[in-house]
Design brief:
Layout (H helix, E strand, L loop, with lengths): L8 H14 L7 E6 L7 H17 L3 E6 L7 H10 L4 E5 H4 L18 H8 L2 H8 L7 E7 L4 E5 L14 E4 L3 H10 L2 E4 L5 H6 L5 E4 L2 H4 L9 E8 L3 E6 H5 L3 H35 L4 E3 L4 H7 L1 H9 L4 H14 L2
Parallel strand pairs: 1-2, 1-3, 6-7, 9-11
Antiparallel strand pairs: 3-10, 4-10, 5-8, 5-9
The structure holds alpha-D-glucopyranuronic acid.
Alpha-D-glucopyranuronic acid (GCU) binds next to loops.
Length: 337
């Protein structure tokens, strides 16, 4: 996916601001704007289109929902800030970047936190685990309304097969803009290069970086597999995306309307999860057969052994997160690997 040209962004913002200040898109309807950074055929966009259809089906006389994909409203960090101020109402942000808004979010960014996809899904569906985290940015003006599956993150490189942590040594690897991801990369021996998602394709192509780490859809939906020929399943993180909403908007909904929106948030989660499995299979197929990407399955334990001390470091620095961390371990024990 290409980033929106920076020169155009201020103009877009000005346009958006005019629209926001003018209040409505037509008649007395309230326009509800949602931004995200994925392409139009990505599961996230499909889920938000289902949300749009649902809200407009139930409350179409009051709300006009508009979904802006592909970083049309800026990078994720830009969009979180627009949601904070209420310039837009919702956006999808990776859990990674939310750690700079509330340290509670750091927990879900830990490498090897969940032992399996099942444990990850169960924990993320458990309100005792997500509740205190999702609420923790209210003082910053926004809160999480649901989570979105973004699969498992793995390393991929232009031309170096990653079979063990030693292979990362000296490589410049793009990571998300989060202190946890920078720390993880440093422990694993690579040189962490934080940047926004939309800049990664060009950075790979111009060899500013040697590789990146992400789920399989980055290879196809974002074209990274045109440049990177090795994708290595070290399974280091399962980092959710989070749909966040402006608190003033949410708090001012009538109880009836809020109920409909809450149902819409549940729909976002379920539609995206349904689409996710199919999308990953299709991405692997396309990456292997059309882009010539080789998928590698290294031994995970050596990567995990290096990263696991980060868990204790986080808990030692944030003892109040202990009950949530332990709740996640209970799901790990219940689900197994
Ligand atoms: C995934 C995730 C995005 C995130 C991106 C990234 O695609 O779904 O929310 O922005 O990774 O690495 O930045």
């Amino acid at each position: 996916m290409k980033s929106f040209p920076k020169a155009v962004f201020p103009a877009l913002c000005a346009l958006l601001l005019t629209a926001v200040l003018s209040g409505c898109s037509g008649g007395d309807k309230r326009t509800v704007r949602i931004g995200h950074n994925q392409a139009a055929d990505h599961p996230t966009n499909l889920a938000l289109l289902a949300f749009e259809e649902y809200i407009e089906g139930a409350l179409g006389d009051k709300y006009d929902v508009e979904v802006y994909p592909s970083e049309l409203l800026g990078s994720q960090t830009d969009m979180v800030q627009l949601t904070q101020t209420g310039a837009i109402d919702f956006c999808v942000a990776s859990n990674s970047i939310l750690e700079t808004f509330s340290r509670n979010y750091t927990l879900f960014n830990l490498p090897y936190l969940f032992v399996s996809s099942e444990a990850y899904h169960q924990a993320m569906d458990d309100p005792d685990i997500t509740g205190p985290i999702f609420e923790s940015t209210r003082q910053a003006g926004f809160q999480a309304v649901t989570w979105i599956d973004a699969g498992t993150r793995n390393f991929y490189t232009v031309d170096t097969p990653i079979e063990s942590p030693a292979d990362l040594k000296g490589l410049k690897i793009r990571v998300q803009q989060s202190p946890t991801n920078v720390a993880m990369m440093s422990l694993l021996g690579g040189s962490a290069t934080p940047m926004g998602f939309g800049e990664v394709y060009t950075a790979l192509q111009s060899k500013v970086i040697d590789g990146a780490e992400n789920n399989e859809l980055a290879l196809t939906s974002n074209g990274h597999g045109d440049v990177c020929k090795f994708y290595s399943y070290d399974m280091h993180q399962m980092i959710p995306d989070i749909l966040i909403g402006n608190c003033d908007f949410l708090d001012n909904l009538s109880p009836e309307d809020r109920g409909v929106f809450e149902e819409g948030f549940r729909l976002v989660n379920s539609v995206e999860r349904e689409e996710w499995g199919k999308a990953v299979e299709a991405a692997k197929e396309r990456a292997a057969n059309q882009q010539g990407v080789t998928f590698l399955y290294p031994e995970v334990q050596p990567f995990q052994d290096i990263c696991t001390p980060m868990h204790q470091d986080l808990i030692a620095a944030n003892p109040d997160l202990t009950p949530i961390y332990e709740g996640i371990q209970q799901w790990n024990a219940a689900c197994g690997s």
